[in-house]
Amino acid sequence: MKALAAGLALGLCLATAVAAAQPEGGIAMHGQPKYANGFDHFDYVNPSAPKGGELHEASLGNFDSFNPFIVKGQAAPIGQTFETLMVESADEPFSEYGLIAESVEVPPERNWVVFNLRPQARFHDNSPITADDVLFSFDILRTKGSPNYRAYYQNVVKAEKLADRKVRFTFAAGDNRELPLILGQLPVLSKKYWQGRKFEETTMDPPLGSGPYKVESFEAGKRLTLVRVKDYWGKDLPVNKGLYNFDKIRIDFYRDSTVSLEAFKAGEYDFRPENESKKWATEYNFPAVASGQVKVRKFENQRPTGMQGFVFNLRRPQFQDDRVRQALTYAFDFEWSNKNLFYGQYDRTNSFFSNSDLASAGLPSADELKILEPLRGKIPDAVFTQTYQAPATDGSDTGIRPNLRTATQLLKDAGWEVKDGKLVKDGKPFSFEILLDQPVWERIALPFVQNLQRLGIAATVRTVDSAQYINRLNSFDYDMIVHVWGESESPGNEQREFWSSATADQPGSANMAGIKSAAVDNLIETLVAAPDREALVARTRALDRVLLQTHIVIPHWHIGYDRVAYWDKFGIPDVVPRRGVVFDAWWIDPAKAAALAKGK
């Protein structure tokens, strides 16, 4: 009877577990996804958008590989040729819906996830996408792909095939609600195609994909043409309706942003997101703008801006003293740069999560203190007593002087002194190089260098080509760089890639600063384990405070909108989602295109 009772109890538990993990079309990081099972299309697309036409785009740099999944080489922008198990919506903090996966099963504990694959899912050679392809992709990316895949998947302890179109991933013990969504982002590659090929090497053979586009032609480093797959298997899925409307996408590659802009003015390409404030303020006054042939618009967004700045390489001995890093932060005059270089367009960045509710502000809240207090003595004391505020000036030509005096005292406290106009310690001068990959950054870096020279620091600026720049970044062969850490509305496992001790010495990782801190590691794991949105916000703000007060970066600036210029040939959806422009939802309006061609 005991055995029978135990069996009945076990059966009841199994039935409960199965009932708690029913197949769903979507999953949210916290709470329920916005779009219910059976939804027709995302709110920010036009489901009736016409297909057709040719889009001309531009890209800076060049390419020497069609393998975007490894560190080696400069990969061509062919993301639209591959598909993932699920896809994010652009109008929620973090929700995913089925793409290759028809449905997803996740228990309340989120200690495993099951993906049920669509029977119609196909690669471009018409071969079916199966569980074997999913498991192959997971294994090859984790073992031979870029370091970020190892970081993302490190808590996956088992991957198994349950049926030809059913896979399950089991996770290590602990709270990591994001893992089912992380696995949903898995790009699915063809096992048959890659067997016999060296995945870890660059290739100029476009690999087999399954997405809405495939490579039609290319000139290495100069031009790439993608063509829409006419019989694309996923064209009628809810997550794809209204998207991927251009028949062809031609991408021209330019080595310089100024040359690229002149090409846009001449009508060589159609759509240009503008990242340079000077160009936005002074260069969009050409005749086609005046005639209305070119539209210049701002699209508001609510996405975190992330952190852009001059990044210290903490692997270098001259930057290991926090007082030195603080001192150099006082030498950057944002207000002068904003006034004289940026036409007053920017706000100073004082958070790694600016433009969102994730940004820290004021002193730590009670919820944040619960996270931070156990780390007291292992994190900067200023976390508890100060609100981080980047040093400011009045923007005048002489406004930097008080800040330089503060910097001088910090450097003196750190053991540096000025002799014969040079800052030295133990007989060695303070010198370093700012490594850049675009000449446009020189106008920002050179005034900073001049201020450093007034402190006795021998700083130089070096601009190299994109191939050399990437190689040096991957091997951490730099003193200081300009870098952007992009952030999402739902930060999680990617924070390990950015800040964890495990990635500090891992070639090709995104831990550009080389930060190694057990306390930061602890904060990352606490953030990853956040059980709900409220906890995630508090834990993100706590991490933000520690990163700011550790002074691993000299913060730059941000804006809360997208700056876009385009030739007036497009149809644009009425709704712009919280993440900003979704260009994949635009289409070529035949009437506008005809009028534009006639006007030209």
Would you write up a description of this structure?
- There is one protein chain.
- By secondary structure, this protein is an alpha+beta fold.
- The protein folds into two domains: 18-255, D-Maltodextrin-Binding Protein, domain 2, CATH 3.40.190; 307-558, Dipeptide-binding Protein, Domain 3 (Dipeptide-binding Protein, domain 3, Roll).
- Strand 3 (86-88) and strand 4 (95-98) form a beta hairpin.
- The termini are far apart.
- 40% of the residues are buried.
- The model is unreliable at 1-19 (pLDDT under 50).
Mean pLDDT: 94
Computed over alpha carbons, the radius of gyration is 26 Å
Number of domain modules: 2
Helix proportion range: 25-40%
The main sheet orders its strands as 20-19-21-14-22
Report the major sheet.
5 strands, mixed
Structural class: alpha+beta
In CATH terms, what is the architecture of the largest domain? Answer: Roll
Low-confidence stretches: 1-19
CATH class of the largest domain: Alpha Beta
* Percent range for β-strand residues: 15-25%
Count, helices: 19
Count every beta strand, where a strand is a DSSP E run of 2 or more residues. Answer: 26
Per CATH, the superfamily of the largest domain is Dipeptide-binding Protein, Domain 3
The assembly state of the depicted protein chains is single chain
Global morphology = globular
- Distance between the terminal alpha carbons, to the nearest Å? 88 Å
